[in-house]
Amino acid sequence: MNVFYKWLGAILLLLTNSNVNAREITYILIDEWFANGAYTNSPQKIDIDNPPTRIYEDEAIGLTLLNGMFYQTSAREQISKAGEKKKCNGYQGECFVIKDRVKLFLPANFNPNIPQVWTWENYKYSTITHSKFSLLGRELVVTDIIASCTECLFNNVRFQFDHEIGITSFKVSANGASLRYLLGSKKGFFAKK
């Protein structure tokens, strides 16, 4: 039943974001895998003696960037500060830090059509492939960006980038657990200005 309410909240968040301030960016949590293989939306039973490992221990269903600050959101409200947009010497002069664990920086010369490798702080990034992606009925060709950090809690983050819309989705992985977020607003991080 908890999963039902989480999905209902995500749908409500998506619907209400169609009328929000154009500067607000929202990503909705669309699936979560636990380290022992349990999935939030599967009928698989969770062993009480061996509870699943989760990345976050709260009921957030999304992330919202508003006025330069990230907030975790529930179905009804913003529940906590989760990070911020920072000024950086890179693409569009910005970088993003979520929960002090997930960091996204694109170099000033970033070109989604050319394979690239770069580093920033303790992360190594690379563009690996182009893939087709459908977002709310719109067909996109996105560039996959892999961020890895061997000494970080989240040791792998996969971003999908579209030149017009920006980051369309991202998946955070750590020790077998993962979270996947999908863009819930009209434009995402690094959208064309």
Q: How would you portray this structure in words?
A:
The chain has one domain (2-183). It has one helix at 2-16; strands at 25-33, 62-66, 69-73, 78-87, 94-98, 102-105, 117-120, 123-135, 138-148, 156-162, 166-174, 177-183. The model is unreliable at 1-22, 38-48, 51-58 and 75-79 (pLDDT under 50). By secondary structure, the chain is mainly beta. The longest helix is centred in the N-terminal third of the chain and has 15 residues, at 2-16. It has a 12-stranded antiparallel beta sheet, covered by helices on one side. Strand 9 (138-148) and strand 10 (156-162) form a beta hairpin. The chain contains 1 helix and 12 strands. Residues 1-22 form the signal peptide. Keywords: Signal.
State the gist of this model.
The chain is mainly beta. It has one domain (2-183). Helices cover 8% and strands 46% of the residues.
Spans of at least 5 consecutive residues with low confidence: 1-22, 38-48, 51-58, 75-79
Helix and strand content put the structural class at: mainly beta
Main sheet properties: 12 strands, antiparallel
Strand fraction equals over 45%
The domain tally reads 1
Gross morphology is globular
Keywords: Signal
